[in-house]
Amino acid sequence: MLLGLVLLSVISFAQEKTDSLDWLASEFWTWRAEYRPFTFDDVPRMEHADGVRDWSAASVAKQRADLAAFERRWKSMRTGGWPMGRMVDYRLMGSAIARVRWELDVNPRWQRDPAFYVEQTVDALQEAIVPPPPLSAARSREIVARAENIPSILEQGKLNLRAVAPFAQLTIQLLSDIDQRFARVERGVSPLLASDADRAQFRTAMAAASKALIEYREWLKKDLPNMRQDFALGDKAYGFFLHQVALLPYTPQQLLAMARQDFERVLAMESYEHQRDIHAPELKMAATAEEEAARMERDDANIRRYLTEHQVLTVPPDLPHWTIRPAPDYVAAFDPFGEIDDFTGPSRPHQDGTRWVHPPSNDLGYFWKAYAQDPRTTGVHEGVPGHFFQLLLSRRNPDPIRRQYYDSSANEGLGFYAEEMMLAAGLYDDAPRS
After folding, report:
1. What is the rounded CA–CA span in Å between residue 277 and residue 432?
2. d(Cα 11, Cα 5) in Å, to the nearest integer?
């Protein structure tokens, strides 16, 4: 009887401790949605919370204090006796917490890269605008709020930055015609907003935001001669990211050697493929963006059928689709600020994903031209079985920690893997030049 009570007590204690990991995860992800920086990366890591953002000294200090508390709670957990799956969850939460330490202190872009504040302003607005219409009342208000938030964030950036010259030069170039681009955004988005009041606020906010971004650009130009020219993150910092955040066992030198080896392998494979297909017919580019979109609709169904029939992967029948749409001008205006994709999110589980495209032309860049010649080349990487497929399945994970965790290295690795896998599996045998 006594032994049974002792065992029950031990089991209850262990269960309580594993439950505390769930509490930590729940509180951390809610906090992270409020504070996580926006990024030009095209693969969304998680949905941001609505509301005003703040990069003042007081806000950064609060983030550091909150982070220290999360770190203490994570490190103090007694993991002895936890099953392997639970230990995986524990390591994933350690990675998620370490990523914040990386952003705030190990690689503090908020202190040295002026493009960071373009991401917190322009990209924040882009993220709210790029999903297809219609615009609900709540989304309209968030778009207005993000536009209104731009001047204050840029002023905070000026106080925080000790900029590095090459980063500043890239930012100056990025903002070279920001006034024209924001004018296009305002013209296109205003009619879509939910109310006259939103439209009036948005026009005022966009004018102020454009002015603030121009002033930010000119401030960088003026300070450019005084900026540090050289910058290297260093092995120690890269090691922190690889081991604590990415959970990879390699040194930076090992990873570089592996990357060079695989790059050379891929270049050789491309050369062989080119010679094999030298007499194959040229691909026929879509005549219009609408034709490209129609091809993608057909190809998305064909890719799913191919995966199933060739027993490569099982695709759940209720999975949303990857689509191509002609980009309206207000979306095209964001093109230099990252990919103009919408991978939906946990709050929109049944919506199709969207890649906005420009009209087909021989003047397009390499990838955009490839999509116009054969939409499967974007469908496989960005859609199914690539990024969109991966994100959709991740969002269905019954484990709340794994459902919300994101990994920098796996996203693009799987996208590239999907391309080569489908090439080897024969998807493009009917169009070798693809």
Report:
1. 6
2. 10
Is 241 part of a structural domain of the chain? no
Considering the domain architecture, whether residues 79 and 196 belong to the same structural domain is answered as no
Region of poorest pLDDT, from 45-54, 326-335, 379-388, 391-400: 45-54
Task: Calculate mean pLDDT across residues 192-215.
Answer: 98
Calculate what percentage of the chain has a pLDDT beyond 70. 95
List, in sequence order, every beta strand (DSSP E) within 296-335: 322-326
Q: Give the pLDDT confidence score for residue 406 in this predicted structure.
A: 85
Euclidean distance between CA atoms 371 and 352, whole angstroms:
18
Rounded CA-CA distance 11/222 in Å is 65
Over range 350-361, report the average pLDDT: 96
**Single residue among 107, 141, 162 that ends a domain in this structure:** 107
One-letter-per-residue 3-state SS of 73-103: HHHCCCCCCCCHHHHHHHHHHHHHHHHHHHH
d(CA 5, CA 419): 56
Specify if 410 maps to a domain. yes
Secondary structure of 395-422 in the HEC alphabet?
Answer: HCCCCHHHHHCCCHHHHHHHHHHHHHHH
Judged by DSSP in three states, 156 sits in helix
Q: Based on the domain organization, do 46 and 174 belong to the same domain?
A: no
The 8-class DSSP code of residue 130 comes to S
Peptide bond into 398 cis (omega under 30): no
State the Cα–Cα distance between residues 216 and 175, nearest whole angstrom. 9
Are 65 and 40 in a shared domain? yes
Last residue of a domain, one of 191, 226, 261: 226
pLDDT at 408: 67
How is residue 299 written in tokens? 């190809």
| Whether residue 398 sits in one domain with residue 298 | yes
Residue 24 identity: L
The whole-number average pLDDT for the span 293-306 is: 97
Decide: 22 and 30 in contact? Cβ < 8 Å. no
Q: Is the pLDDT of residue 434 over 80?
A: yes
Residue 353: give the domain boundaries: 277-424
Strand order across the beta sheet in which 341-342 lies:
322-326, 353-357, 341-342
Average confidence score pLDDT of the chain? 93
